[in-house]
Write a structure and sequence with these properties.
This protein is α/β, with parallel strands linked by helices. It is built from 17 helices and 17 strands. The chain starts with a strand and ends in a 7-residue tail after the last helix. Bound molecules: zinc ion. Zinc ion binds next to loops.
Length: 447
Amino acid sequence: MTGKQTVETIVCGDYVVTMNDERNVITQGAVAIDAGEIVHVGSKKDIERNFHSRQLVDGTDQVVMPGLINGHTHAAMCLLRGFADDIPLMEWLQDYINPIEAHAVSEDYVRVGTQLACWEMLSGGTTTFVDMYFFHETAAIAVEEIGMRALISASMMDQPRNDAVDIDDSFKQAEHFVRDWSRRSATVVPIVAGHAIYTLKNEHLVRLRDLAKSLDVPVHIHVSESQFELDFSRDSYGTTPITHFERIGLLDVPMIAAHVVWPERDEIEILARKGVGVVHNPTCNARIASGTAPIVDLLQGGVKVGLGTDGAASSNNLDMWEEMRVASLMQRAQTLDSTVLPARELLKMATSHGAAAIGMQQSIGKLIAGMRADVIQVSIDNAHHLPLYDVESHLAYSSGSRDVSNVFVDGKHLIRGRAPTTIDTNELKLGIQRNRERISSFDSLSA
Ligand SMILES: [Zn+2]
């Protein structure tokens, strides 16, 4: 008898970037995982001395770090990737996206689109995402089956949709969904969402507040994304969205606010005081010309800021590495300050800060014993990682989705040597093709 503790898995790395508060990077490190939880993080020698594992994942030329957290997306919109590019925002939304969604969105569409999004995100090292789309239960089942972690929103908006007869139905479905799923899954967390201030009547924003309060879940919503939205809010309420939300008590429930490109100066203080989690989607903001969010000011003001990709229809991919880099480039180009959003800060936004922005800082975002085992391995054995002086610099500025070799979510090995273990990609491709044909057959766009 050796007296060693037996664990399911030990994941090794030349470097283990813990993202803990002490900023520990362990050279020749390892992470011991059991029953979905991180049991120990330390040197490989130390772990091998104290633990015996059923599976040992080699760490040669690998970095181990927490899984990335995509704080805002519309997963199933992957099926509209490249469908309508290079068009002004409101025209894009009203003349392309809304009509094609009315035509094509179904349970099959959401199941296939969500599976595709999970495949893409997991392959690129994203282990958690926050979703807002239609047919939330179908999305939740797809994510649960794959084993990925997600906050799935039952969303509300005052517009015709294929998954509800009217907004009363949407509210009813949301309540049922949250109650039904609150303890059903180890990785899927049900929450509620409102699309935006311009797609929900005030009475429904208030009703959303009350629903979130009664169910004790966050509200996920697009906030101050575009000039159109600000104009709408000023015309309708005489003020900007964040101030209006504060007035009606919508910020008294935990909020995951996507975008926040155009907060007023005094609204930054409101966001910090109310503990609103802001999710910055730089690629989407740049691509559809919404503007550059004042991330440096938000961070200095004490606001929790994470990163997101938004849907693939408006950012073309769900690549969190790209979001880190674009976030940094946009802030520096705007502030003319090459010191803002350094590598460490970008990594935090994609992991520990991202977890705080979505209210999950107790369980994910850092490699610490007791947290859930959402762990990725990134290969550094390639030209674009050589030479290596600073591993955090490489992760923020040189690494990409293609470098992710192994992914664990809740201790389950979902990407093994770059291959998904819980997704039948051949079957999925048939579903993608089926939906592509349906989307392509919609010819009234130019009408
Ligand atoms: Zn969005």
